[in-house]
C-alpha cells in the first residue's frame, strides 16, 4: 500500500517553536527522508507528500493557533524564506525566487511617540489586529519583544498595509 501525506510542513512564525531555524531543519530532514525512497519500517518505499503551503496566508483563521498563517516556504514577494534543497540529496539545488518583483514605495504607519491621550490605545490596537495580522506579536513569535509603542506601531502598520497602503 502506498503512503500519501496530504499536508506536511513547519510554520515559520506565530509560536515559540515556529521559526526559520526549525522549519529549515524540518524540511532538510523531510526531503532527505523522501529522497531515500526507504519509506517507513512498516511501509517501505516511496512516500508521496504534499507541502502544506507555498506562501503565508494572512487572512487564514488562527483558531488552531497564531502559527496557522505562517506555513509558507516563500515570503510575500516570492523569495524563499530560507535555502532549501528539495532534491534531499545535498546537491545544493535551491528554490528560485520570483523575478522582477515590483515593490510599492516604503510607507509605514506608527504610533505618534508624542501622543498623550492613550486611553483608547488598547481598543485601537484591538481593532487594527482584528482586521490585519498581528500574530507575529504573540508569545515566542518574531516580534514578541517589542515595547508598548512598538506593539501599537506594529498593529497600526499591519492594519495600514493590509487595508490600503495608498491612503496617505
Structure notes:
With 168 residues, the chain is an alpha+beta fold. It folds into 2 domains: 1-99, no CATH class; 104-168, Methane Monooxygenase Hydroxylase, Chain G, domain 1 (Up-down Bundle), CATH 1.20.58. The protein has helices at 20-36, 121-130, 148-163, and strands at 3-8, 47-51. The chain has a two-stranded parallel ribbon. Strand 1 (3-8), helix 1 (20-36) and strand 2 form a beta-alpha-beta unit. Helix 2 (121-130) packs parallel to helix 3. The model has no long low-confidence stretch (mean pLDDT 91). Belongs to the glycosyl hydrolase 17 family. This is Putative ovule protein. Keywords: Disulfide bond, Glycosidase, Hydrolase, Plant defense, Signal.
Radius of gyration (Å): 20 Å
**Widest sheet: strand ordering:** 1-2
Structure annotation, total helices: 3
Mean pLDDT: 91
**Total tally of structural domains:** 2
Low-confidence stretches: none
Helix content: 25-40%
> Biggest sheet, open or closed, and with what strands and sense?
2 strands, parallel
Distance between the termini: 59 Å
Order of helices and strands: EHEHH
Shape: elongated
Amino acid at each position: 500500500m502506498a503512503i500519501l501525506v496530504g499536508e506536511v510542513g513547519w510554520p515559520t512564525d506565530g509560536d515559540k517553536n515556529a521559526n526559520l531555524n526549525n522549519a529549515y531543519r524540518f524540511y532538510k530532514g523531510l526531503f532527505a527522508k523522501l529522497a531515500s525512497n526507504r519509506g517507513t519500517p512498516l511501509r517501505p518505499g516511496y512516500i508521496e507528500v504534499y507541502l502544506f503551503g507555498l506562501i503565508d496566508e494572512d487572512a487564514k483563521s488562527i483558531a488552531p493557533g497564531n502559527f496557522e498563517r505562517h506555513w509558507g516556504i516563500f515570503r510575500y514577494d516570492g523569495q524563499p524564506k530560507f535555502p532549501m534543497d528539495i532534491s534531499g540529496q545535498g546537491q545544493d539545488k535551491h528554490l528560485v525566487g520570483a523575478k522582477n518583483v515590483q515593490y510599492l514605495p516604503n510607507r509605514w504607519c506608527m504610533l505618534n511617540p508624542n501622543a498623550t491621550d492613550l486611553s483608547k490605545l488598547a481598543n485601537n490596537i484591538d481593532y487594527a489586529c482584528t482586521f490585519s495580522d498581528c500574530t507575529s506579536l504573540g508569545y515566542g513569535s518574531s516580534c514578541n519583544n517589542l515595547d508598548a509603542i512598538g506593539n501599537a506601531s506594529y498593529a497600526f502598520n499591519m492594519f495600514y498595509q493590509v487595508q490600503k497602503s495608498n491612503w496617505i
